[in-house]
Here is the input.
Amino acid sequence: MIEALIGAAIACLAAMVTLGVVVSRRPPSRIDVAGYALRGRGVALAKPFTLLGYSPLLFVLSAIAVTVAVVVHAGRPAIVTLLVTQALSQIATTVVKLGFRRPRQTTWVGYHEPDMSFPSGHTTTAVVFFAGFAILALHAPFPPAAAAALAAPLLVCVVAIPWSRLALGAHYVTDILGGALFGAAWLCAALAGIVALYARSAHHV
Here is the structure.
């Protein structure tokens, strides 16, 4: 399991870098141009989903997750690992953006962010944070219905946050793909760490 997750992380990272090299040195591709059709659609819904990708709301959600873990006396190592991974992934995204230096689109709907475009940090967060917590929720010591109820809105965010970036004109489609690959690499690494932590804990029992 751990080896497979590490292999998947490496593969996703390699795919992200390859995609970044291609798209950062060329004009927008056909898929990027096709993505323009989403710009300006559903803006009222896109704005709150985009806000979920920023630090203030992520901090609130993180505090809720830690509080739940403390109350139920379960999942604290996994949650801490995921939160550390989320923080590291955003630092890494900032560095990678400086490396590829792909300019943002010039037509925005709303606030114009000054940083580079590839990969999408919001999409990386959608995968690491929201998909990661959905996985943890499904493995939490809750009744299946309760676990599914917790995971469902998190999984909606995994899709809706990247969509919101296209609706607001903040990213190209290939930025979203790059962010998804980068996020998947970090999430696989985090899951490998979580599996290793619990395997070690079980070994010492």
User: Anything to note?
Assistant: The CA atoms of residues 28 and 172 lie 8 Å apart. DSSP finds eight helices and no strands in the chain. The chain has one domain: 2-24+45-204. Helices lie at 2-23, 30-35, 43-51, 55-72, 76-100, 121-138, 144-167, 173-204.
